[in-house]
């Protein structure tokens, strides 16, 4: 039997074949043309291509150019091409798109090659980097799982890729791709975020093997995750390194050496609870939203900016190293102070007589609000709070996973000491440190600016400086005996009998002499001065304000003390410098506020009196225990029942305030020895300042305060002071 095809058959089959080929080409061309017309869905316009939308994290940047944290829906921050290591670019090209620099968005050679491999059962992807970028930028739902939808999506990618190549350079395309690509499960988008999350570095410092790990993940972010599947990740890394060798980016010896290296990570999952200045960033976010709204700062299309999506650059005054020193000082001392506090309450019931604190705590908790939302009754909620539950609790030795009744955890946290620290430069108003609490994950209430507490004896300088304005000298002597104003007679601990100078009386924080001055100058004058110094909380003109019975924020108190160090000039504490959009356009710039609050000589006299607190008064342990021998002024403060401990220290270039206490004022130290500001707050100031002075790059001098340029009329040397027979006339 003859099975040979005739010439006619060959011609017929050949014609049929070419008709199929031409028909397929025509059909594909028709599909592409139809896709281009938008028949299968809208394509990005020229304007869209010029301004591709992507969720960009807004960055909070310190004064020393460190990113303190980000606000984000997707943890993505852009970098420029010159900020990307050649290693990551080389690894990407060698693995994903070897002809990147020669094709026009579509690699036809690779497309047909991949098609052949797929027909042979060797499934491979054919998308160029430009096509992948098109998917990243203009596909809101991501890669479609439905085959038909994916086919249409692929057609769109081809068209968009060509358009991208016409509108952007290769470097711009590469940069956009690396800024938009997804690097896995930890909300890590873009090369900047990936470098920070997996290696705690920046994109320009990525080594070849680190770059190979990240590029290797693009084949499957979960499958080749160095966290979840380290062995697979290492094998994939080595494959990428081999690709780099084949492409000529690495020598054979370099490739072999790098492949022998073990997988080394420096993994750090980034969210708002982590990182530096967490409380500061939370307060700042609220402020920025208010600023943008009140100043009608919107995008070019009229829509409001979204901090979590629009990639704003937020420049602050916070110094990252000083912030770290403050947080370290807090941790170092608070763990010991907490142990002292716990020892005092061992075997005692701190809530006896204060049971309402527990009820209030329950109703303020997230657990309670969730239970109410679920429709649970009060009895059911009470039962839930008494049921042992798995939870993680905060300790100064690290977080602990345990089983505990929610009621017991609430009591545990009620007995946990809180603390806040703030530093500012008095001349500029720049806030350099902001520690609003001890752990933002567990205690989210900011105690620097949002919270106010009774200020205690840190208010005494306000009465003393009012007296200086009225003509009193720091050397004026007063008999240290009980004083009554109207029906108010304050108590006094540690009273030093006899006559004391005002300077010594303030150094030793003597209540009777402070009350004497209040009687002489009047509560209205003191209250008025307090407002001049920038205290924004309510300070009624009552005699007791001389002993600090009013509430104020740490933010305001540090600002007020800065007046003394700044020659009588009040400068508003500033922590936000400016806000820029993703392209560097300045949207908002903070204008500093200044005002003359005191005559220079009175401010200088007060700095001298505050220095005496450190040299001979309640702050003397700065000298004998912490060996801070340079000129430092300060004031301790302790409120009723030792509920609050304060210390505010001043130097010519830096003013720092520290507060310590529990969430509820009813929970406090049982003894003044442990609860006074000299023990609960001053040591943190000392530990912080020692770190600051040990860092020469910060350039804070140890020089003394400058005297007034025009001299001073106040007698500062008590050896030459002649006591007047009567004080200056009291106000009418």
Poorly predicted residue ranges: 114-124
Mean pLDDT: 87
Q: State the helical fraction.
A: 40-55%
Structural class: alpha+beta
What CATH architecture of the domain at 418-576 and 602-698 do you see? 3-Layer(aba) Sandwich
CATH class of the domain at 418-576 and 602-698: Alpha Beta
What is Rg? Answer: 34 Å
Distance between the termini: 135 Å
CATH T-level topology of the domain at 418-576 and 602-698 = Beta-lactamase
CATH homologous superfamily label of the domain at 418-576 and 602-698: DD-peptidase/beta-lactamase superfamily
Strand content: 5-15%
Q: Given the structure, what is the number of helices?
A: 27
Query: What is the tally of beta strands?
Result: 20
Summarize the structure.
This protein has 732 residues and is an alpha+beta fold. The chain has 27 helices and 20 strands.
Throw out a few tags for this protein.
732 residues; alpha+beta; Penicillin binding protein transpeptidase fold; Beta-lactamase; five-stranded mixed sheet; five-stranded antiparallel sheet; elongated
Walk me through what this model shows.
The chain has 732 residues and is α+β, with helices and mostly antiparallel strands. Among the domains are: 42-271, Penicillin binding protein transpeptidase fold, CATH 1.10.3810; 418-576 and 602-698, Beta-lactamase (3-Layer(aba) Sandwich), CATH 3.40.710. Strand 6 and strand 7 (400-404) form a beta hairpin. Helix 18 packs across helix 20 (511-521). The longest helix has 30 residues, at 7-36. It is elongated, with a radius of gyration of 34 Å.
């Amino acid at each position: 039997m003859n099975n040979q095809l005739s010439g006619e058959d060959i011609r017929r089959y050949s014609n049929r074949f070419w008709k199929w080929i031409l028909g397929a080409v025509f059909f594909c061309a028709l599909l592409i043309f139809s896709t281009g017309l938008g028949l299968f869905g809208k394509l990005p316009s020229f304007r869209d291509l010029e301004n591709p939308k992507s969720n960009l994290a807004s960055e909070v940047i310190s004064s020393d150019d460190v990113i303190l944290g980000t606000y984000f829906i997707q943890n993505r921050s852009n970098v420029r091409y010159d900020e990307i290591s050649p290693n990551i670019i080389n690894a990407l090209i060698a693995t994903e798109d070897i002809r990147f620099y020669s094709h026009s968005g579509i690699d036809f050679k690779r497309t047909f090659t991949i098609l052949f491999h797929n027909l042979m059962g060797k499934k491979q992807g054919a998308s160029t980097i430009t096509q992948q970028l098109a998917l990243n930028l203009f596909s809101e739902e991501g890669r479609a799982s439905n085959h038909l939808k994916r086919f249409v999506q692929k057609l769109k990618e081809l068209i968009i890729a060509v358009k991208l190549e016409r509108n952007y350079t290769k470097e711009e395309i590469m940069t956009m791709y690396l800024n938009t690509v997804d690097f896995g499960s930890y909300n890590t988008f873009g090369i900047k975020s990936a470098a920070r999350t997996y290696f705690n570095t920046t994109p320009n410092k990525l080594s070849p093997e680190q770059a190979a790990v990240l590029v290797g993940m693009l084949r499957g972010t979960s499958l080749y995750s160095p966290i979840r599947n380290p062995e697979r990740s290492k094998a994939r890394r080595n494959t990428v390194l081999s690709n780099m060798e084949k492409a000529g980016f690495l020598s054979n010896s370099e490739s072999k050496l790098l492949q022998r290296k073990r997988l080394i990570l420096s993994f750090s999952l980034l969210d708002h609870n982590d990182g530096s200045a967490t409380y500061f960033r939370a307060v700042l976010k609220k402020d920025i939203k208010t600023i943008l709204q009140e100043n009608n700062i919107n995008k070019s299309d009229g829509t409001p900016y979204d901090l979590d999506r629009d990639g704003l650059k937020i420049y602050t005054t916070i110094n990252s190293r000083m912030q770290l020193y403050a947080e370290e000082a807090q941790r170092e001392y608070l763990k010991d102070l907490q142990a002292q506090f716990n020892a005092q309450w061992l075997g005692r019931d701190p809530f006896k007589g204060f049971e309402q604190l527990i009820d209030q705590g329950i109703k303020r908790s997230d657990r309670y609000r969730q239970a109410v939302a679920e429709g649970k009754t009060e009895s059911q909620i009470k039962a839930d709070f008494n049921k042992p539950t798995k939870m993680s609790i905060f300790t100064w030795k690290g977080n602990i996973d345990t089983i505990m009744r929610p009621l017991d955890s609430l009591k545990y946290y009620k007995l946990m000491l809180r603390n806040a620290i703030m530093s500012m430069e008095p001349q500029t108003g720049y806030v350099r440190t902001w520690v609003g609490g001890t752990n933002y994950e567990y205690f989210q209430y900011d105690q620097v600016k949002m919270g106010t507490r009774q200020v205690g004896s840190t208010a005494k300088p306000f009465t003393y400086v009012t007296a200086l304005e009225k003509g009193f000298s720091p050397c004026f002597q007063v008999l240290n005996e009980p004083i009554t104003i109207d029906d108010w007679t304050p108590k006094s601990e540690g009273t030093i009998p006899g006559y004391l100078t005002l300077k010594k009386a303030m150094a030793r924080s003597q209540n009777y002499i402070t009350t004497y001055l209040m009687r002489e100058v009047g509560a209205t004058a003191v209250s008025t001065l307090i407002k001049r110094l920038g205290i924004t909380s309510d300070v009624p003109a009552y005699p007791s304000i001389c002993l600090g019975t009013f509430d104020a924020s740490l933010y305001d108190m540090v600002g007020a003390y800065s007046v003394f160090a700044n020659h009588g000039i009040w400068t508003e504490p500033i922590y936000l410098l400016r806000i820029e959009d993703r392209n560097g356009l300045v949207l908002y710039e903070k204008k500093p506020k200044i005002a003359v609050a005191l005559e220079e000589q009175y401010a200088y006299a007060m700095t001298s009196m505050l220095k005496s607190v450190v040299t001979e008064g309640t702050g003397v342990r700065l000298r004998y225990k912490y060996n801070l021998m340079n000129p430092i002024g300060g004031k301790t403060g302790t409120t009723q029942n030792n509920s609050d401990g304060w210390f505010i220290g001043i130097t010519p270039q830096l003013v720092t305030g520290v507060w310590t206490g529990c969430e509820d004022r009813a929970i406090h130290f049982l003894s003044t020895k442990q609860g006074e500001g000299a023990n609960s707050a001053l040591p943190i100031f000392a530990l912080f300042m020692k770190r600051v002075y040990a860092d020469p790059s910060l350039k804070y001098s140890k020089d003394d305060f400058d005297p007034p340029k025009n001299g001073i009329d106040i007698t500062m040397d008590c050896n030459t002071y002649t006591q007047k027979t009567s004080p200056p006339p009291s106000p009418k």
